[in-house]
From TrEMBL:
<feature type="compositionally biased region" description="Basic and acidic residues">
    <location>
        <begin position="74"/>
        <end position="85"/>
    </location>
</feature>
<dbReference type="Pfam" id="PF14804">
    <property type="entry name" value="Jag_N"/>
</dbReference>
<dbReference type="InterPro" id="IPR036867">
    <property type="entry name" value="R3H_dom_sf"/>
</dbReference>
<dbReference type="InterPro" id="IPR034079">
    <property type="entry name" value="R3H_KhpB"/>
</dbReference>
<dbReference type="Pfam" id="PF01424">
    <property type="entry name" value="R3H"/>
</dbReference>
<keyword id="KW-0133">Cell shape</keyword>
<feature type="region of interest" description="Disordered">
    <location>
        <begin position="60"/>
        <end position="99"/>
    </location>
</feature>
<dbReference type="InterPro" id="IPR039247">
    <property type="entry name" value="KhpB"/>
</dbReference>
<dbReference type="InterPro" id="IPR038247">
    <property type="entry name" value="Jag_N_dom_sf"/>
</dbReference>
<dbReference type="GO" id="GO:0003723">
    <property type="term" value="F:RNA binding"/>
</dbReference>
<comment type="function">
    <text>A probable RNA chaperone. Forms a complex with KhpA which binds to cellular RNA and controls its expression. Plays a role in peptidoglycan (PG) homeostasis and cell length regulation.</text>
</comment>
<comment type="subunit">
    <text>Forms a complex with KhpA.</text>
</comment>
<dbReference type="GO" id="GO:0008360">
    <property type="term" value="P:regulation of cell shape"/>
</dbReference>
<feature type="region of interest" description="Jag_N domain">
    <location>
        <begin position="5"/>
        <end position="55"/>
    </location>
</feature>
<dbReference type="InterPro" id="IPR015946">
    <property type="entry name" value="KH_dom-like_a/b"/>
</dbReference>
<dbReference type="GO" id="GO:0071555">
    <property type="term" value="P:cell wall organization"/>
</dbReference>
<dbReference type="GO" id="GO:0005737">
    <property type="term" value="C:cytoplasm"/>
</dbReference>
Length: 253
């Protein structure tokens, strides 16, 4: 992959997200701003994300130099003394990065960020922190009154807040740790709704023999639809369109 389009609250956020996907540094890419961001209230409501296209610069290939042939001289190893056990070469072992400790730090920073946002909004909410080592995810569950305003239509506000929390929590850390926000078990209820919807639409496609197109969804929700129908022998699913208006299509195989 040498080109990717990303969105973010600011152009810089969108560029950082693209660099994380491409795995390159800022000086190795060309950036094209497709849409400027529009200011919103607390970075959550009524705004428009910036959109950029980031392309990895082409590096001209260099002519390989041909090394002059060098005669190999076999290395002489001293014979071990009689009765002496030959010493095994010592291999350097590099200690792995302490991802668990870093994940704990990211979780703490994310929780602090949310508390500051809720304080600015005048909302008194409880935040529970969970760390899944199996899925390598940080899960922050939010409880309290007026939680509906944080979810928004089809979870759009919750997704926006989750995006900002990921940026704030992972800032300054070497590894990227995925943070999931949930509000009063909305994620699980949304999953069940999407699975039922996908199966109902698949039945309609089989009956009418006409493809069905769902509303625009984020990548996480599109994945739920794809997985819920992956073992259905009669239908297939695919996505079409550009973010953030990309949709899942259900069609006959």
């Amino acid at each position: 992959m040498n080109m990717v389009e990303k969105t973010g609250k600011t152009v810089e956020d969108a560029v950082k997200a693209a660099l994380a996907v491409l795995g390159v540094s800022r000086d190795q890419v060309d950036v094209e701003v497709l849409e400027e961001s529009k200011s919103s209230i607390l970075g959550l409501f009524g705004g428009r994300d910036a959109k950029v296209r980031v392309t990895v610069k082409e590096v001209p290939a260099e002519e390989p130099s041909v090394p002059e042939p060098v005669a190999e001289i076999p290395e002489e190893k001293p014979e071990p003394a009689k009765g002496e056990v030959p010493e095994e070469p010592v291999q350097e072992i590099k200690a792995p990065a302490d991802r668990d400790a870093e994940r704990q730090a990211v979780a703490a920073a994310a929780k602090t960020f949310l508390e500051e946002v809720f304080r600015a909004m005048g909302m008194d909410l409880l935040i529970e922190k969970f760390i899944s080592r199996k899925d390598e995810e940080i899960i922050l569950k939010i409880h309290g009154d007026g939680i509906g305003v944080l979810i928004g239509k089809h979870g759009q506000t919750l997704d926006a807040l989750q995006y900002l929390t990921n940026l704030a929590g992972n800032k300054g850390h070497r590894n990227w740790h995925r943070i999931i926000l949930d509000a009063e078990n909305y994620r699980e209820r949304r999953r069940e709704t999407l699975e039922r919807l996908a199966k109902n639409l698949a039945d309609r496609v089989k009956r009418t023999r006409k493809k069905a197109m769902l509303e625009p969804m984020n990548p996480y929700e599109r994945k739920i639809v794809h997985m819920s129908l992956q073992y259905d022998p009669a239908v297939t699913t695919y996505s079409e369109g550009e973010e953030p208006y990309r949709k899942v299509v259900i069609d006959l195989k």
